[in-house]
């Protein structure tokens, strides 16, 4: 049922306008919460990996993750949305910006932005993720726009594990990224690929799933020549 139909049900003269508005706001908030929960975990590789064979990186609203191992991350409607990223075990490179938004206190003219945006240059952090571990961003959190602007010039921090131990520190991104991560081939798949007999279709699917985009393009050119 759409919001419009819900409003028609409750649209009676005895229903106060203010209560109706509060109902709509509550309904919209519930819908947004549902959307946020669906974005709770973002996969950062191509392929499938079992739940226990991955790590988790929690990014607060101030951190906007741009790339993970060279793979571009999607942009969402709200800049200050906290998101969680599933990582493959092993070396991972995270490219991100630190961004905060501060309301203007003075008079705002027509067409002028009502907020101050403080954003750093892209930073990167590389670390070896362990399966089942949870990692978080640790950095100083400013209490005012002035503090945020000062932090903008000397932004620093680290990735810490579940025990609060630092595993890697932030640094300015040099523009270099590794290739996108792919789910590893399982032991069973490695044992059957290249042998005669068995599930040939399953072997081909496994090979295709773990091939890079360039490898897929090369194969298709070869297949149709």
Structure description:
- The chain has 225 residues and is of the alpha+beta class.
- Helix content is 30%, strand content 28%.
- It has six helices and twelve strands.
- It has helices spanning 3-10, 17-38, 145-153, 187-192, 200-209, 213-224; strands at residues 41-43, 55-59, 63-68, 71-72, 83-87, 90-103, 115-119, 123-129, 134-139, 157-160, 166-169, 171-172.
- A six-stranded mixed sheet has the order 1-5-2-9-10-11, with no helix packed on it. Strands 3, 4, 6, 7, 8 and 12 form a six-stranded antiparallel sheet that branches.
- A hairpin with a 5-residue loop joins strand 10 (157-160) and strand 11 (166-169).
- The longest helix is centred in the first third of the chain and has 22 residues, at 17-38.
- The chain is globular, with a radius of gyration of 24 Å.
- 14% of the residues are buried.
- Residues 2-15, 17-39 and 187-199 have low confidence and may be disordered.
């Amino acid at each position: 049922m759409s919001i419009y139909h819900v409003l028609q049900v409750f649209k009676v003269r005895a229903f106060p306008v203010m209560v109706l508005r509060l109902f709509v706001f509550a309904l919209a908030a519930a819908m947004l919460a549902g959307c946020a929960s669906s974005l709770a975990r973002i996969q950062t590789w191509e392929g499938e990996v079992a739940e226990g064979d991955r790590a988790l990186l929690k990014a607060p609203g101030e951190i906007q993750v741009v790339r993970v191992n060279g793979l571009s991350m999607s942009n969402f409607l709200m800049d200050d949305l906290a998101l969680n990223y599933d990582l493959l075990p092993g070396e991972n490179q995270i490219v991100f910006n630190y961004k905060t938004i501060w309301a203007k206190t003075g008079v705002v003219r027509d067409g002028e932005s009502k907020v101050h945006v403080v954003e750093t240059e892209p930073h990167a952090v590389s670390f070896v993720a362990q399966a089942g571990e949870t990692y978080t961003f640790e950095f100083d959190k400013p209490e005012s726009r002035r503090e945020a602007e000062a932090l903008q010039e000397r932004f620093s921090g680290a990735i810490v594990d579940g025990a609060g131990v630092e595993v890697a520190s932030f640094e300015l991104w040099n523009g270099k990224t590794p290739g996108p991560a792919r789910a590893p081939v399982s032991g069973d798949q490695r044992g059957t690929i290249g042998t005669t007999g068995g599930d040939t279709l399953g072997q081909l699917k496994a090979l295709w799933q773990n091939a890079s985009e360039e490898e897929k393009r090369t194969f298709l050119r070869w297949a149709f020549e």
